[in-house]
Amino acid sequence: MEWLSDFSRKWLAPHFLTSLPEQSWQELLAEDCLMLETSLSQALLATEKEKQAHRLFTASYHTLLQVSNTLFEKYYALSAGSLTLLSSPTSERLLFSCQQLDSLLSLLVSRFPSLTSAQLPLSYFAWHLASQQLQEKSKAIAFLLPESLSEHPLLTLALYPAYSLPTQPVSLPDQPVSLSHLSYLTRYFEYLYAWAQALPASVQSADFEQALLCRLILLNFNHLPVLDYYTHALGQLTEPTPALQAERLCLHLKTIRQQAELPGMAYEPHQPSLKSWLSEWLCEEITFCEQKARLVVASQTSDFKIQTSLSVSQLAYFFRLTTDSGIITNSNLRELLSFAARHLSTRHTGNVSAESLRIKFYDTESGTKASLKDLLQKMLDTLKKENPDTRLKR
Questions:
Q1: Domain range spanning residue 318?
Q2: Could you tell me which residues are beta bridge partners of residue 307?
Q3: How far is CA 138 from CA 86, 120, 128, 320, in A?
Q4: Is the CB of residue 254 less than 8 Å from the CB of residue 247?
Q5: Is residue 159 situated within a structural domain?
Q6: Which of 133, 293, 341, 387 satisfies CB 3.0 to 4.6 Å to 352 for a cystine?
Q7: Residue ending a domain, choose from 116, 140, 158
Q8: For residue 241, what is the enclosing H or E element?
Q9: CA distances (Å), 131 to each of 165, 173, 180, 255, 302, in order?
């Protein structure tokens, strides 16, 4: 690895870039990078053990990354980060050096994918260039949309990643940008751009919002503010009753669950997907609304009961007589007796057991029959007194 250390000391020497000949400095820098590429590739291919090769690759990557980042910091100080407006010959050489080193890093990653970790950080130059490219793509997406939708709040959230990358080298240690994250963002904005191109010019705000949400689910843009936006928006759409609110939320849940997701896509790889986030929230809200609806029904249901002077046995036999004689025609006796238990009370029992009624319905004692016969005779005597019709006499 001495050749790598020599390369690092040489390129970071204070006057190395300025000491190169004016006519051939680009060729000399390119030759240096080619030599390093050849040496490093040979060393990696000659390493038989995979773990050793992986350690060599990672150490070499980070050494080259450090050289590139140090040069870019110097360049940034001279040119304020502009990749087009070069303020001096030195800044031009610094930028060219960063480009050469970034090309070398990209070549190593593509040549040795088995040794590459997706979490390897980008060079300052790479993520600075990526930030500018993503911002241009973001503006192009907004330009494709009708002016009334270009500032839609959900679109602002969707385009946030283009402006979330660090714009100054000093930000990188706190907010590292990995190879996998840049790969996701590149695909993400390509899909968004294609979607914006295909969107009808006459699309209305509500349809646009729903279509954009479906696209974000497809791309698994699991950014927490998107969930916050969606839950807040649904919170503003209230129905007259909890039952109707639950029905509306069920429709939203059906729509969310029917959306496809692209495999391997995730803005936040260690967080749940946007689809699972939204589905879980909707399920919780639906459960809450259903419970609330049941409480409303319960509060509206009176606990009024018809009080009787009958015993449980007499009440059960009374229902048997009325069903046997065809006065009550319900065919489901279990439902009938459950209803009677809920809405009738006996002489000694405020809450009648439906099971007790059922048992005594089929098993009636002779004393119960006799006592109920007397009660029915009382009713008949009362009827005779109020309507002394000879036809009632026997």
A1: 306-392
A2: 345
A3: 25, 25, 15, 78
A4: no
A5: yes
A6: 341
A7: 116
A8: none
A9: 6, 16, 15, 34, 65
